[in-house]
């Protein structure tokens, strides 16, 4: 599949609520649902409204390939774990080195896929967006690394079972024919010692998947993982150029056949990017990789930022990219 | 120090009337003076509860603070405050943004501390959020590096500590919950705390939580403080194993209450936790407390959890003939 020169996209989540004077509809609905004042169906109606709202915002910012903003996800782990066999959800724990927390899944039995997890959400997003929407799954390695696994003696077995389980999800999504499917694997940047099991998990999760897929890494660099990424069955590789500074050297000095999705917008800081400076830095990369094999996106999901800042940053990103497409 | 003293980490649940007053103030329905009246009532209530329970080193409960980093940022120069960002579930907070050189304007917590100390004859801890955590939990639009930001904050927070000391505070706690995340930055945290505590002859407590202590132990023993307070109940005391190879050289704040669960610990459970610690450290080196601030619990949950803690300490002391 060909993508246009410097296709712009996002990595995953989008802030669920805006700030005053706009109404925090999602937060209010969640609070009312927790108190039993509205039904689950009513909560879902609000989630759908907010999903449309954040897809429109991404479109307004000019992003080429958007996501549904993951409005219905409490976090990137439990959204999957709660719907797979074998997991229970335990207490809060810090998410990487952020000041955000998630409920840690625990594999108390053998994990297995039961039924589609993301397909309905994807259909809804697709049907309600003029722009192409890419569905996202949290990769088996990251899901395993951020979970406990008392039912498994060996971590590797746990990772591979998850890869098989999520492969079913990929195949279910493939039937919907999305523009691409994206697998998010931030944890591998922190645990390169697991490269081998990671590579095997990537092969398994992609088994019989024939549509274009992206593998996104973030929160760190991928130095040392070059071969694993190049040999992986993904067309697009996402790398974090903000929180993985060493990726600059890696990409400039190495040859890449795959499409690279460069996380250039700092999704963890409110400071606005200096895009002129960034494009100066990119010049040597453009000399070795054609622009139709480069995508540009934030460094990770946008939920670390207030909604208004996320929107402003995306808008700047797209405007800067448009000047450099030629 | 006397054997098995008790304390708490800092925050207490805000009573419902204070919650309502804070919401009303946020909506502009009541003036600051009215909110402050509720804060004072609540502070008295928190101190009275600790007195009644017989806790040894008290706290003011932080009735006037929202988020622990944002509270200090709001009172320092060089910061603005962001829109809402999600922390987990349906919880949101406003995050500080460093937009210029951070500056000390005037003492932030001194008046609050003086008031709280006036309510009790027992020592009242003064508590502030440390420079490393302030840096890690803020957006930064001004400084070039994390180190520059943290060091600038250390200079500023040193002035706050100095003002607290001059006002009479002798138990000063620096909260560094962010410290447990990046092992490679323990040295930076140590450097910034050295600046904060420089030349101040108080007992310094450093509180660390939510993380993998295995990765930062024994390096955290180098932090310039007498007391290290660790969240242990939630991490199942795995750290104790390491005390064998690297003896714990400071006074230990032994977290015995999991503050993230509604479930109330039984006296027996807490006793067991204390007895386990006593296998590694003498009672004079242990201070018993909850894992973390109690603000996420309800008032009633906090009260019964602390009751279990105090009763467990009483029983252990009696059985071990400690005074």
Q: Care to give the gist of this entry?
A:
The complex is a heterodimer of chains A (326) and B (323). Chain A has 326 residues and is α/β, with parallel strands linked by helices. Chain A has helices at residues 25-34, 40-61, 78-81, 119-127, 140-145, 155-174, 195-205, 226-231, 246-253, 275-288, 307-323; strands at residues 7-8, 85-94, 101-112, 136-138, 181-184, 213-216, 236-240, 259-265, 294-298.
Kindly describe this structure:
Chain A is built from eleven helices and nine strands. By secondary structure, chain A is of the alpha/beta class. Chain A has one domain (7-74, 112-323): TIM Barrel (Alpha-Beta Barrel). In chain A, the strands form two sheets. Chain A has a seven-stranded parallel sheet with strand order 1-9-8-7-6-5-4. A two-stranded antiparallel sheet of chain A has the order 2-3. In chain A, helix 1 runs antiparallel to helix 2 (40-61) and helix 2 (40-61) packs parallel to helix 11 (307-323). Chain B has a single domain (5-66, 109-136, 144-319), classed as TIM Barrel (Alpha-Beta Barrel). Chain B has eleven helices and ten strands. In chain B, the strands form two sheets. In chain B, strands 1-10-9-8-7-6-4 form a seven-stranded parallel sheet. In chain B, helix 6 runs parallel beside helix 7. The longest helix of chain B is centred in the N-terminal third of the chain and has 22 residues, at 32-53. Chain B starts with a strand and ends with a helix.
Could you give the order of strands across the largest sheet of chain A?
1-9-8-7-6-5-4
Shape of chain B: globular
How many strands in all of chain A?
A: 9
For the biggest β-sheet of chain B, the strand order reads 1-10-9-8-7-6-4
Largest interface: A-B, 31 and 25 residues
Distance between the termini of chain A: 20 Å
Integer count of domains of chain B: 1
Using the CA coordinates, give the radius of gyration of chain B. Answer: 19 Å
Multimerization state: heterodimer
**CATH level 1 name of chain B:** Alpha Beta
Given the helix and strand composition of chain B, which structural class is it?
alpha/beta
Given this structure, which CATH class of chain A is correct? Alpha Beta
**CATH T-level fold name of chain B:** TIM Barrel
CATH topology of chain A: TIM Barrel
By DSSP (H or I, 4+ residues per run), the number of helices of chain A equals 11
């Amino acid at each position: 599949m060909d993508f246009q020169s410097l296709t712009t996209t996002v990595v995953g989540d989008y802030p669920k609520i805006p700030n005053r004077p706009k109404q925090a509809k999602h937060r209010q609905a969640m609070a009312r649902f927790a108190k039993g004042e509205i039904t689950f169906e009513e909560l879902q109606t609000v989630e759908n409204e907010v999903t449309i709202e954040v897809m429109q915002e991404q479109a307004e910012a000019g992003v080429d390939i958007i996501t549904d903003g993951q409005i219905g996800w409490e976090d990137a782990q439990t959204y999957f774990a709660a719907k797979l066999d074998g997991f229970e959800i335990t207490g809060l724990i810090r998410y990487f080195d952020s000041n955000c927390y998630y409920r840690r899944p625990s594999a108390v039995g053998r994990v297995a896929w039961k039924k589609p997890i993301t397909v309905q959400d994807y259909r809804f997003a697709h049907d309600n967006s003029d722009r192409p929407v890419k569905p996202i799954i949290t990769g088996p390695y990251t899901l395993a690394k951020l979970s406990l696994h008392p039912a498994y003696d060996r971590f590797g077995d746990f990772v591979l079972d998850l890869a098989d389980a999520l492969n079913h999800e990929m195949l279910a999504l493939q039937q919907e024919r999305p523009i691409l499917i994206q697998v998010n694997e931030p944890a591998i940047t922190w645990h390169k010692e697991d490269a081998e099991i990671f590579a095997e998990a990537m092969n398994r999760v992609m088994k019989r998947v024939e549509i274009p897929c992206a593998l996104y890494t973030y929160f760190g660099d991928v130095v040392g993982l070059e071969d694993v990424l190049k040999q992986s069955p993904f067309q697009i590789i996402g790398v974090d150029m903000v929180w993985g500074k060493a990726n600059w050297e890696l990409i400039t000095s190495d040859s890449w056949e795959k499409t690279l999705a460069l996380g250039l917008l700092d999704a963890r800081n409110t400071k606005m990017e200096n895009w002129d400076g960034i494009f100066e830095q990119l010049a040597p990369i453009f000399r070795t990789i054609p622009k139709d094999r480069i995508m540009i996106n934030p460094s990770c999901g946008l939920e670390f930022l207030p909604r208004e800042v996320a929107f402003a940053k995306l808008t700047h990103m797209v405007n800067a990219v448009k000047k450099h497409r030629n | 120090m006397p054997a098995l003293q008790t304390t708490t980490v800092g925050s207490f649940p805000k009573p419902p009337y204070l919650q309502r007053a804070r919401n009303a103030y946020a909506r502009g329905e009541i003036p600051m003076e009215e909110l402050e009246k509720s804060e004072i009532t609540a502070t008295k209530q928190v101190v009275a509860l600790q007195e009644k329970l017989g806790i040894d080193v008290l706290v003011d409960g932080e009735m006037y603070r929202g988020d622990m980093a944002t509270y200090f940022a709001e009172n320092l120069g060089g910061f603005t405050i962001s829109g809402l960002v999600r922390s987990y579930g349906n919880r949101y907070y406003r995050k500080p943004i460093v937009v210029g050189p951070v500056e000390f304007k005037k003492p932030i917590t001194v008046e609050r501390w003086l008031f709280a100390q006036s309510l009790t004859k027992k020592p009242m801890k003064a508590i502030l959020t440390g420079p490393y955590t302030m840096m890690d939990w803020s957006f930064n639009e001004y400084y070039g590096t994390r180190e520059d930001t943290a060091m600038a904050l250390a200079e500023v927070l040193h002035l706050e500590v100095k003002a607290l000391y001059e006002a009479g505070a002798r138990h000063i706690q620096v909260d560094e919950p962010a410290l447990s995340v990046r092992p490679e930055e323990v040295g930076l945290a140590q450097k910034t705390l050295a600046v904060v505590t420089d030349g101040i002859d108080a007992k310094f407590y450093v509180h660390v939580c939510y993380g993998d202590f295995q990765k930062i132990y024994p390096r955290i023993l180098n932090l310039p403080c007498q007391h290290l307070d660790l969240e242990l109940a939630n991490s199942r005391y795995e750290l104790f194993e390491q005390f064998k190879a690297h003896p714990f050289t400071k006074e230990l704040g032994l977290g015995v209450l999991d503050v993230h669960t509604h479930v109330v610990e039984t006296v027996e459970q807490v006793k067991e936790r204390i007895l386990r610690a006593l296998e590694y450290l003498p009672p004079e080196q242990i201070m018993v407390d909850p894992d973390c601030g109690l603000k996420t619990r309800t008032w009633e949950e906090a009260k019964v959890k602390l009751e279990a803690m105090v009763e467990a300490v009483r029983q252990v002391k009696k059985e071990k003939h400690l005074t």
